[in-house]
Amino acid sequence: MGNGGVGQGPGISCPPEFQNLLGETLPPVEYLRAVFTKYGEASLRYPKKFLVIANGARAIVDATNREYERQTLQDHLTQATKAPKSFIDEVMDTRGRDLSAPESTGLATLPPT
């Protein structure tokens, strides 16, 4: 589908060895859709694989701010893994709050000692 302009444009160049790789990359939403399809094909099911599913739900929040895209990905993750929508909602809400905190960098930090 293309790379959404990654590594292209005025003043932007990529080494030749990366051109093929960049030509095959997917935008984040399409990538997650493909990953969630693979979750279903691999029979990753809730609750046994809840950590993998939770990481997928967090990735949705990181991938897009568009509500309709988030909802579509959430539905796809729910369908592929049979995880309750309430579980995925909770994980996504927590991730969204974490990212919107004023001191948040979006990166994990160690607790103070």
Number of helices: 5
Low-confidence parts, pLDDT < 50 over ≥5 residues?
Answer: 1-10
**What proportion strand?**
under 5%
Helix share bin: 55-70%
Radius of gyration, taken over Cα atoms and rounded to an integer in Å: 17 Å
The structural class is: mainly alpha
Distance between the termini: 47 Å
Major β-sheet annotation: none
Overall, the morphology is globular
**How many β-strand runs?**
0
Helix and strand sequence: HHHHH
Mean pLDDT: 83
Annotate the secondary structure layout:
Blueprint lengths: L15 H8 L4 H14 L8 H14 L3 H15 L3 H16 L13
Helix pairs in contact: 2-3, 2-4, 3-4, 3-5
How would you characterize the overall build of this protein?
This protein is an all-alpha fold and 113 residues long. 59% of the residues lie in helices and 0% in strands. The chain has five helices and no strands. Helix 2 packs parallel to helix 4, helix 3 packs antiparallel against helix 4 (67-81) and helix 3 (50-63) crosses helix 5. The protein is globular and about 45 Å long. The termini are far apart.
